[in-house]
Amino acid sequence: MANAVSVTFLTAAAGALGYCVYFDYQRRNNVEFRKSIYKKKRQAERKERLQREASKKEKTIILKRKLTESLTNKPLTTANKEQAFIEEVTAAEKLASVPGQEIDSAIHFYRALSVYPEPTAILEIYQKSVPAEIYELIMLLTAIFPPANITSLLGESNGSILETE
């Protein structure tokens, strides 16, 4: 019994070693073989890049839809911003610990960012404390639909630049 297993293992090992020697020989001496390896590598990289781009577009569409649903179902409050901020951050932290709930967590963090008076300060805190994938989603959400406090901040900075010139 052990003899049959040994023979099978040695045969498989010899076959694998033989293929490695053949592959190395072809790689070193056959120009067409090298070109085909390079071409396959480029095709694989291109395919991976296209999949990443498609995934990013799909993620953006899902984020837009979920953000729109969230804002229509529960609009951002202008009164009692502190309480709204605490509620949103608490909900976001709970969802951040649940696998598969990253998008919902990012939406809650985004909603908290929208009611926070100093968005740049809270973004710095998010960057240090929130997992990287959720932070990336938050930044994508702010790019998709910038909160009013961020657009007013950008408007103020643009105005001050124009006034000094």
From TrEMBL:
Superkingdom field: Eukaryota
Task: Output the Gene Ontology cellular-component terms.
Answer: mitochondrial outer membrane translocase complex
Return the SUPFAM superfamilies for the record: Mitochondrial import receptor subunit Tom20
Identify a single GO molecular function assigned to this protein.
Answer: mitochondrion targeting sequence binding
Q: Which Pfam families match?
A: MAS20 (PF02064)
**Main subcellular localization, coarse class?**
mitochondrion
The keyword Hydrolase is annotated on this UniProt entry? no
Topology term for the membrane: Single-pass membrane protein
User: What are the recorded Gene Ontology BP terms?
Assistant: intracellular protein transport; protein import into mitochondrial matrix; protein targeting; tRNA import into mitochondrion
Q: Which Gene3D superfamilies match?
A: Mitochondrial outer membrane translocase complex, subunit Tom20 domain (1.20.960.10)
Alphabetized UniProt keyword annotations? Membrane, Mitochondrion, Mitochondrion outer membrane, Protein transport, Transmembrane, Transmembrane helix, Transport
Provide the protein's localization: Mitochondrion outer membrane
> Does this UniProt record's set of keywords contain Mitochondrion?
yes
Family indicated by similarity: Belongs to the Tom20 family.
This one is known as: Mitochondrial import receptor subunit TOM20
